[in-house]
Design a protein that fits this description.
By secondary structure, the protein is an alpha/beta fold. The protein has three domains: 298 residues, 3-Layer(aba) Sandwich (Rossmann fold), CATH 3.40.50.740; 213 residues, Dimethylsulfoxide Reductase, domain 2 (3-Layer(aba) Sandwich), CATH 3.40.228; 124 residues, Barwin-like endoglucanases, CATH 2.40.40.20. Helices cover 35% and strands 16% of the residues. The strands form ten sheets. A six-stranded mixed beta sheet has the order 6-5-18-17-16-7. The protein has a six-stranded mixed beta sheet with strand order 30-32-31-34-25-33. Helix 2 packs across helix 3 and helix 10 packs across helix 22. The longest helix has 18 residues. The two termini are 23 Å apart. The N terminus is likely disordered. The structure holds ligand MGD (2 copies) and molybdenum atom (MO). Belongs to the prokaryotic molybdopterin-containing oxidoreductase family. Its cofactor is Mo-bis(molybdopterin guanine dinucleotide); [4Fe-4S] cluster. GO terms for molecular function: 4 iron, 4 sulfur cluster binding; formate dehydrogenase (NAD+) activity; molybdenum ion binding; molybdopterin cofactor binding. Pfam families: Molybdopterin, Molydop_binding.
């Protein structure tokens, strides 16, 4: 029998909406679809963001320090800063400014705020409203059966975590999530603590982001990272951008593309949507940008069908093989193939059975455009291929990235200047987190080094990744979940299923800067621990500290916050880990946690001793621009397998993307006005969508065929694993997108992404490959959702 209190909690939590399910929509405004990114509107948007938030003085001061030598690293994306000439205006972009405004806000979420607002009432708000509440300022606790978070002292919070962790039957009943903003220093200590506690359950945002790239690259070239540097972009012949939206998600990349183009490079873009940032760019930091000149970026745009990329890549290869036959030795780099690779013969053989017309049909791109692309590639030697979530979140994403490597290998276009692979990372330190061993599958070599230096036996069994963690919580194999940043609930797939799991947790701990939905769909007990953001001054022992991060191109650099923290109750993430470790492990620990608590330099010394490439860390991190980590493939040294010092060609398959007559393929994507689950505003400006996020982009022919009209209200359904998943109330927008393809925004449609719809080998949610049905909106739909 449940007691009354328990009964009440169950009733209450079941009323909490796990995702936004609004009964009405705002008035959607369609504005002009832009053909180029940045320029005057971008600068205006950035500045007005800061003004609206009344943080203009704090924010303005910080902007000039953003990504400057000796300043702080922008927390928005992982694109590198130029090694030499940084803009005197600050090396920032519109979306960097928005990220800064978000964290520089002086609005506070205090104990009084939580007293006034129950968890239930907060959960009724939409994600935009939740995010605008302000910065979290003090540790908060939600007791069993509680309706409101209440204040708790740091000591009591750590005691609670320790008692929960120590009560578990096995350390593997805990999971430790990391989002990608955590510094190298805090990440290193965090994984060290998890391992000393006894588990490798370290799911991280990479498991939803670039795990696919890491898996493909490790098994083909021997390192799970990109091989190019910024300099390579400045002096190359061709840049191919597949499944990535740089104008929104890595805007500083546009400056590099512009510079490359100026030096003669061509650009090919592959995307179902003609994204503004791909098509053209007006540099807001150059005077000509402000007066409105600037230029076309993409020379050839290939409007690919969702998941048509494999067919496209093979079609291009087929054409390259034919061109090589006609021009022996001019298209392929035979010397490179012979000296540096394995598997070429088998690779080439498959093309005997492939047919260009069929491949073109599967890709959705016309044969003429594919021929044009192949001609642009054939006689160029220095090629860079970039990609983003459009590839990594596809079920066969690992294979598609291997196919990208195949193309570069036949061209010998990897491991030399102006050429190589460039997975464009997401979070500003997601790559550094992995280097610091935040990984559910650490290698024995890594663990041996930790063991030798610290003298404890780290666990060797692999732990749970994101999808594994969700399922394990559901099955009550994981009972305590600790989140270092992020918004696991909203970022994860299958929101209803994930929420169901979270409600089973005995304890959920979130180390956060801002309130998010992940705090409202809670465990039986929950803690929110407030921390510093990247731009905040981190003062330890009366000294302003530096932390360090690694960008998308393997440069480790320092970052120093400049803003006065708005609460005196913040602990930095390093201190939080150390105090959790001291409270949990006590005398049992062999690690000097108090030392690391007080000294980032001491943490860096430990990193230097445990991770290759960090020699002389404390000195080099203080040098102008930081330092490059070793990257063997960048220097032409490959190791696809232990057995051979070579890169490997891979045989891959072309997927069958059949849809039922009333089905559509849906890719979930970001608007121009959000950072993952943080909604900055309601203006997806480049795509011309204003005021409303619950929209579905459809081809006009599909709209007509289904008997809909643009502006109609519809409900969206997914039926993976025989389960009905519903996302209610969306507006149809007629858009330039291939037939039978649709695009919606995440996190609103994460309810439709089955936890079992994953990428082969990397086990990432395949959130850009969701089969959906679209039906006229039925007001009775909410009754159905409530019963689920
Ligand atoms: N301002 C801002 N910056 C960000 C983020 C943010 O949310 N806001 N997020 C950060 C993070 S964590 C990440 S991982 C990156 C993400 O940055 P991106 O990789 O750019 O991510 P998305 O916007 O999800 O999707 C990229 C593109 O994939 C295309 N696409 C969809 N399906 C397919 C397909 O089948 N084939 C091809 N070729 N393309 C397809 C979409 O049209 C879209 O243009 O950005 C980082 N930077
Ligand atoms: N359907 C669909 N789902 C997706 C994606 C998609 O394209 N489609 N993209 C996936 C990708 S690429 C990613 S990376 C994940 C993102 O998943 P997450 O990284 O988990 O999500 P974010 O929205 O970036 O996290 C935002 C929260 O982080 C906290 N925060 C911000 N800065 C800091 C900090 O410095 N320290 C701490 N401790 N907390 C901080 C704030 O409280 C904020 O609310 O989402 C994934 N989910
Ligand atoms: Mo990401």
């Amino acid at each position: 029998m449940k007691n009354d209190q328990q009964q009440n909690t169950d009733d209450l939590t079941h009323k909490l909406p796990e995702a936004e399910n609004p009964y009405q929509l705002s008035k959607l405004k369609l504005t002009k679809v832009e053909k180029w990114a940045a320029g005057v509107p971008a600068v205006m948007a950035a500045v007005s963001d800061l003004i609206e938030d009344k943080t203009v003085l704090r924010g303005g001061k910080a902007l000039f320090k953003m990504n400057q030598m000796g300043g702080f690293d922008c927390s928005s994306c992982a694109w590198p800063d130029p090694d030499d000439d940084r803009s005197p205006l600050g090396e920032y972009c519109e979306n960097g400014a928005k990220a800064l405004a978000e964290e520089a806000t002086t609005k506070k979420v205090t104990a009084a705020f939580f007293k006034e607002n129950s968890v239930y009432s907060l959960s009724q708000l939409d994600d935009y409203q939740i995010g605008k509440m302000g910065r979290l300022t003090e540790p908060m606790y939600l007791p069993v059966g509680g309706t409101h978070y209440q204040p708790i002292s740091w000591n009591d919070a750590f005691a609670k975590i320790a008692s929960h962790l120590n009560a578990l039957e096995s350390p593997n009943e805990a999971a430790f999530y990391t989002s990608g903003r955590t510094s190298n220093e805090a990440s290193f200590l965090y994984q060290l603590f998890a391992k000393e506690f006894g588990t490798n359950n370290m799911p991280d945002c990479s498991n939803m982001c670039h795990e696919t790239s890491g898996t493909a690259l490790k098994t083909t070239i021997g390192i799970g990272k990109g091989t190019v540097t910024l300099e390579d972009f400045y002096d190359t012949d061709l840049i191919i951008i597949i499944g990535q939206n740089p104008g929104t998600n890595a805007p500083r990349m546009l400056s590099a593309l512009e510079k490359g183009k100026k030096n003669g490079a061509k650009i090919i873009a592959v995307n179902p949507l003609p994204e503004a940032g791909l098509m053209g760019f007006h540099n807001p930091q150059a005077i000509k940008g402000i007066i409105g000149s600037g230029g076309k970026l993409t020379d050839l745009f290939l409007p690919i069908k969702i998941n048509g990329d494999m067919a496209l890549l093979k079609a291009i290869e087929l054409l390259l093989i034919e061109m090589e036959k006609k021009n022996p030795g001019q298209v392929f780099d035979h010397e490179f193939i012979k000296d540096k690779t394995t598997g070429f013969e088998n690779f080439q053989k498959q093309f005997e059975n492939l047919n260009l017309d069929h491949l073109a049909f599967l890709s959705g791109v016309s044969k003429d455009l594919i021929i044009e692309a192949a001609e642009m590639i054939a006689f160029k030697k220095r090629i860079i291929i970039c990609w983003g979530m459009g590839l990594t979140q596809q079920p066969n994403g690992v294979d598609m990235i291997r196919e990208i490597v195949n193309i570069l290998l036949i061209k010998g276009s990897i491991g030399k200047p102006g050429a190589g692979v460039c997975p464009v990372r997401g979070h500003s330190n997601v790559q550094g987190n992995r280097t610091m061993m935040i990984d559910e599958k650490p290698t024995n070599e890594q663990l041996d080094r930790l063991q030798a230096y610290f003298g404890f036996n780290p666990p060797r069994d692999h732990g749970y990744d994101v999808v594994g963690t969700i399922k394990a919580i559901h099955e009550e194999k994981v009972k305590v979940m600790f989140c270092m940043g992020g918004n696991f609930l909203s970022a994860a797939p299958d929101t209803t299923y994930t929420a169901e799991a979270f409600r089973k947790l005995k304890l959920l701990v979130c180390v956060s800067t801002k309130l998010n939905r992940g705090h409202l769909i809670h465990g039986k007990e929950s803690l929110i621990l407030p921390t510093l953001s990247r731009s905040d001054m981190d003062i330890v022992n009366n000294e302003i500290q530096i932390i360090s991060t690694e960008n998308s191109m393997g440069v480790v650099q320092s970052s120093k916050g400049v803003l006065q923290p708005i609460s005196d109750q913040f602990l930095n993430e390093t201190q939080i880990v150390c105090r959790m470790a001291i409270a949990t492990l006590g005398e049992k620990s062999v690690i000097n946690w108090p030392l690391y608590h007080d000294s980032y330099d001491a943490v860096r010394d430990a990193i230097e001793n445990c991770i290759p490439g960090f020699e002389n860390y404390n000195v080099r991190v203080r040098e102008k621009g930081g330092f490059y980590l070793p990257n063997a493939p960048r220097d032409g040294q490959f190791k696809a397998k232990e057995s051979a010092n070579r890169a490997s060609f891979t045989l891959t398959e072309i997927p069958d993307n059949e849809l039922e007559a009333d089905e559509y393929m849906m890719a979930t994507t970001r608007t121009h006005d959000q950072f993952n689950t943080t909604i900055y505003g309601m203006d997806d400006r480049y795509r011309g969508i204003k005021n409303e996020r619950r929209v579905i982009f459809m081809n006009q022919k599909d709209i007509d065929k289904a008997g809909f009209k643009a502006g109609d209200k519809v409900d969206l359904f997914n039926y993976n694993d025989g389960i009905e998943r519903i996302a209610p109330l969306f507006l149809i927008v007629s858009y330039q997108i291939p037939e039978r393809n649709t695009v919606t925004y995440f996190p609103e449609t994460n309810v439709l992404v089955s936890v079992n719809n994953v990428v082969k080998e990397s086990n990432m949610p395949a959130s850009k490959y969701v089969k959906i049905k679209v039906k006229k909106h039925d007001p009775a739909i909410y009754e159905k959702i409530k019963r689920m």
